[in-house]
Amino acid sequence: MKFRNVLIVGILFLALTSYVLFFERHSKTTEELQQKDLSVLHLRTSDVTGLLLESGETSIALEKKGAAWSMTKPFATEGDLDNVSAFLSELELLRADRLVTADAKEKLDWKQYGLAGSSQKIRIKTTFSQRVLVLGKATPMGKTVYIAVEGQPMVCVVSGDAQKLFHKVPEDFRNHVALEFNIDDVVALAVKNPAGLFEVEQQKGRAGDSASSWKWKKAPKDKQLDQEAYSSMLWELRRLKFKQYVGERNQQAEAWSHPTIKISVWLKREKAPRTLLVGSILPDGSALAAIEGKTGIFTIEAYQVESLKKNLAKPLEVPLPPVSHNGPAKPAFTAAKVTQPT
Question: What is the CATH number of domain 183-319?
Answer without folding.
Answer: 3.30.1490
